[in-house]
Amino acid sequence: MVEIIKLDITNSFEKVLTMEEPYSSEDMDDVRRRWAECFLKVM
Fold it and tell me: DSSP for 7-24?
């Protein structure tokens, strides 16, 4: 179960890293920062 959650978060994190318009670069930085914080908490 934990491995599945880690895999889902990893896949979602990769999608966030490749986000493009219509998001501003500032919005993308904020989302990436939040996902990175969540990702590190799970690890």
Answer: HHHHHHHHHHHT--TTS-
Digit-coded pLDDT (tens) for 28-40 = 788 888 888 887 8
Q: What is residue 1's DSSP assignment?
A: -
Counting every residue written for the chain, the total comes to: 43
Residues 6+ apart with CB under 8 A from 35: 12, 13, 16
pLDDT at 3 over 60: no
Structure tokens at 9: 């978060």
Output the six-digit token pair for 30.
């904020």
In one-letter notation, the amino acid at residue 28 is M
